[in-house]
Structures
1.
Amino acid sequence: MTLRALLIVNRVKDEAAHAAEVVRTIMARHATVIDVEANDEDLPDSTQFDIAVVVGGDGTLIGQTRRLVNRMKPIVGVNAGRLGFLAEFTTEDLATHAPLVFGSAPPLRERMLLCVDIIRKDGSHATRGLAINDAVIAAGSPHRMIEMFLSVDADEEGVDITGDGVILATPTGSTAYNASAGGPIVHPDVAGIVITPICAHSLAFRPVVVAAHELISITLRRVNHGTCVVLDGQRFVPMQDGDELRATQHVKKALFVANPSNRYWDVLRAKMRWAAPPSYRDRGP
């Protein structure tokens, strides 16, 4: 049976559109190529495929992963953006490893996802979403500090948080906003969720990693009119006083095809400059 491969391209970016033509040629040698627009619309049931190739930056890959996660098919990320931390392949890498990538047993990386529920003050269920990188409670306009109550695994005592918000990051997302806010980098194979405060009005509130199966609850006690929950920097849910965010690991995982040329620690050093030393002045021999 011929392999069926989706080709999803962020054509807003000229670099992605150009790379897509190269990718299409590579894919056509190994599979039947099915073109799909890069948007948020659910794929019709009639669109059947065995593997998906997403050409764009990490943001495009994250958005399309949310779109495809229920299909439980492998996803190949071809970088045509700036960083390319999650989108592991260049067009050259894809050409080199195409027989393996489009073969019967491509190397896969399972990535944990966050399942996020928003519960209104009256107890009604507002929405459910998922995040590959993070779910962020952002203070928003007029940018005054907000007040929250955090509990983990039904801990009734919990803790109060006053600050600009909270980041709940997956191990995959630990190198994104979480890292910028001073949170720890967590290897993607670790089953955990990082809780990192944003500018907490406390000298004692440090980031913490909790087990992925635990239920995290954050109730908003005082918010701004612009306060919202942001999923992967792409989906926004307005929040009001008394609303609650609940988060835990999603029952499904994202399946990414691994680039055999990459090791996690090599990518961390090359892309994130992890553990890079200061630029010392050369004093000679």
Note: The mean pLDDT is 95.
2.
Amino acid sequence: MLLAKLAQGVKFVTLPRFEPNSFFKLLDEHQATVLYLAPPLVLLLASHPGVRPKHLQSLRHVMSGAAPLGSLDVERFLRRTPPTTDILQGYGMTEASPLITHGIIGSTDYDSAGVPVPNTEMKVVDAETRTDLPQGEMGEICLRGPQVMKGYLNRPEATAEMIDSEGWLHTGDLGYYDKEGHFYVVDRLKELIKVKGFQVAPAELEEILRSHPDIDDAAVIGVPDERAGEVPRAFVVPKRSQISEEDVKKYVAEKMSEYKQLKGGVEFLASVPKSPSGKILRRMLKGQ
């Protein structure tokens, strides 16, 4: 990404370390037209009280990756940008060098991660049987193309587990594709919460929680339950101290199916633990 833009003579501005006020200052000073952002920074720009119209007035395109970004979060962000601003999602992984799909400029299908990059084949399979699934059915995303790694160094068993005999790389990501070939990444397969045989994607609940006017950020994990096997538990960063656990549960209950409700409870945090790329560190939450 960096070399491609520099080759085109584009001015590239980076931060040595992230701090909101420094970030806002650079946005104002350089009047950026293109931003490459992980989802937490999109959420920050959508909700931080320090963001002013001058910070985003020159913005034309936003590229987001590293984790799924839901349409509700995108719409909150776009309320603060010029009406002509595009936001695109890309999907990739280190084992694919790293790009797999890229959004289409002008698309308003904000949930989509786009279409496969050139020379890339993609499909969705049943995670257990590895049989191909048709459009619209949820399963594991797989790809095949020149960007796929040869394998893990000195780890043949790990390589064989990820890349099958026909050269398909099994990503471990849950998703589906539509009739136009657009792919949608829902969550990591290993993160799914299994409630009475139903599969619940934490990312879906997290997006709903962030749409609450008194919630700044959220994370969801599965916790053991004697009857259901697992149930969702939410970790919430409130905007005001008066919001209660019952408020949060009621909000989700009004919008989601019965098996997706927060029967594992709600805990309030000062911040959600995340990696530098913006991925939620669920293992830290499970240890609490």
Note: The chain has nine helices and 14 strands.
3.
Amino acid sequence: MGHAGQPDPVTSQPARVEFRVVELMNRLLDVTPDSIGTEVQSVLATLGQTYGLARTFLFRYAAGTGYVNTHEWAAPGVTPLKPAMQGGAQIVRRTWHEAFLAGRIVAITDRNEVPEGSPERAFMTENGVHSTLMVPLCDGDRMFGLIGFDCCRPDRPWGQDMVFLLSSIGRAVSSVLLRVEAARAEAASRSHLQATLHALPDLVIELSPTGDIVACHSDKLPWLSGLVRAGIGRPLRQVLPETLAAALCEMVASPPDGRSARTRRVGISTLVTPHRYEISVARLD
């Protein structure tokens, strides 16, 4: 927020401001999923201090949850709004919302330009905001958030160059958020796939209702799968090691209901080393 007697950093040093914005955009190129929260907060703080603003903020938007204020920087003496801006599907300031959905920037130089009695003007007045610039964050036609800048001075214009620079930052932040979301989704998918592969059984034996071996799937346990394949059509007890066959027969005799599975661990002694197996039984519809 600018203070009386201080030069306007935007008009007094335009070149320095442009360099600062370029520096911020370069920093955003190196953002990772682990650092994005800290970096976005740092960008907001730097923009607020550089432009002499009162408040800078980032909102995420989804139709089901509405707007959620995820990041905010406030100048000394300015009341933060983030605690009170944590979502709600109901859209209160519809004029702004429709502009964001259409991908349009909202730039208000003087709140007296906003229609009297409107929720937008009431919001600005209640929070001491005289002018505001808000840039929607979009992924194609989908609006998923906005980055905004408030000023509590009554004489703060939003010049064309300033709007261009802040809009450029908004597009950079938008790209970074989408890139990080894609990286997180890929990591989650990879983790899920890895967990699924680990959960796959080493050997699947398909049995008839009478306990005869119908089929054998997977060759991760060559010696055991070889026994099972050679014993297709024969009772389980005649094929598998006694301890393993007894446990399976007991479980097959009282199979679980529905699509659930019953699991237990069985130890088998061999001439070389003992083996432990985790066996599961489930109905096959």
Note: Residues 1-12 have pLDDT under 50 and may be disordered.
